[in-house]
Specification:
Elements (H helix, E strand, L loop, with lengths): L2 H6 L22 H11 L3 H14 L6 H11 L3 H14 L4 H13 L3 H12 L6 H13 L3 H14 L4 H13 L3 H14 L4 H13 L3 H14 L9 H12 L3 H14 L4 H13 L3 H14 L4 H13 L3 H26 L2
Length: about 350
């Protein structure tokens, strides 16, 4: 398999992964593999995975069936099964950097950054990494809360491939997280130069304007991001919730309702969207609606201190004082645990 094929396997780390190309098929044999390849190319990844498993049983270790099965499983977002296939393939093909780079990606998607970094190091000892490999390395460091190293590797990624929009976006997010707002703004502007009407980049520019004390510019930017995705089959809830939250903070309560409700409609299992809508309903006196939204937020994210605190306020206003106190106690417990965790990390 050439590096271009393997590199394509590593695109789109924070979104649904799409593998567009395949490995070379020279020397492949067996009808199960051929049928699996046809199913894979047709986008029938479940059937493809089964057929590649059958092909591997027919000719253990002699084809690239397990590598293709892993690609199929990544399409299905079954990363644990993809890991199993890749480790089995690597045991009989120890010099396959393609399998190792893909394994590093799969471990990243399972939130196992330290293991992912170890595999990437091993792969780099065989074949020089490409920009998308370095992007995942950077994102591993994000998961480890090591933003200095995250930015170093993401900067290397965009230096290696200056037109890599996803790497620029990830770098912008890293800059934004550590409040390097000017650099973050530049990164998102580059994304938009490379990919005009990129909703994620535009939404993040709105966050930067908001953080910089320019609410009017932020509102216009969120509205533009929303307009850009009107025809999208999978619109993001983020510009809606960000717009609604900012309008609420600016006292524009009437205007805030529609985007906040749209955000929950688009992402009903997003705790932040639920809690923000709950806070909004509380502000306008719809206590029962606020209760429902905030209770759902705490179910979705049990350790969300803000949601528990706001739910306690709602219970208090409903004169359910015991339930309110329980939520305030839960808030204090979460904050204490988080503080202890932060102190423990800083001592290492």
């Amino acid at each position: 398999m050439n590096r271009c094929d393997r590199n394509l396997c590593m695109l789109a780390a924070l979104a649904t992964v799409v593998f567009l190309c395949g490995v070379r098929t020279f020397g492949q044999s067996g009808s199960a593999f051929d049928r699996g390849l046809a199913a894979f190319r047709a986008g029938n990844y479940s059937s493809a995975s089964s057929l590649f498993a059958e092909a591997e049983t027919e000719s253990p270790g002699s084809t690239e069936a397990l590598l293709y099965q892993a690609k199929s499983l990544v399409h299905l977002q079954d990363f644990a099964a993809a890991e199993t296939a890749l480790r089995s393939y690597s045991s009989s093909h120890p010099d396959s950097s393609d399998a190792l780079y893909m394994l590093g990606f799969v471990l990243h998607r399972q939130n196992r950054p330290a293991e992912s970094l170890a595999i990437f190091t091993k792969a780099a000892g065989i074949t020089r990494p490409m920009a998308d490999d370095l992007k995942i390395v950077g994102l591993d460091y994000v998961l480890l809360d090591d933003y200095a190293d995250a930015m170093k590797w993401l900067e290397k990624a965009v230096s290696m491939e200056p037109r890599n929009t996803d790497a620029w976006y990830c770098l912008g997010r890293a800059y934004y997280t550590v409040a390097r707002l000017d650099e973050a703004k530049k990164a998102f502007q580059i994304v938009l130069e490379l990919d005009p009407r990129n909703v994620r980049a535009e939404n993040n520019l709105g966050l930067i304007y908001e953080s910089s004390g320019a609410p009017d510019a932020a509102i216009e930017t969120y509205q533009r991001a929303i307009a850009w995705q009107q025809d999208s089959q999978k619109p993001s809830e983020q510009p809606y919730v960000n717009l609604g939250n900012l309008l609420m903070e600016q006292g524009q309560l009437k205007e805030a309702m529609a985007p906040l409700e749209s955000a929950v409609s688009l992402a009903p299992n997003n705790a932040y969207c639920r809690s923000t809508l709950g806070i909004y309903y509380h502000k306008i006196g719809r206590l029962e609606d606020a209760q429902r939204q905030l209770e759902r937020a705490t179910q979705l994210d049990p350790d969300n201190a803000v949601a528990h605190y706001q739910l306690g306020r709602v219970y208090k206003d409903m004169n359910e004082l015991d339930r309110a106190q329980a939520e305030f106690n839960r808030t204090a417990e979460i904050k204490t645990r988080n503080a202890q965790g932060s102190s423990s990390q800083s001592n290492h």
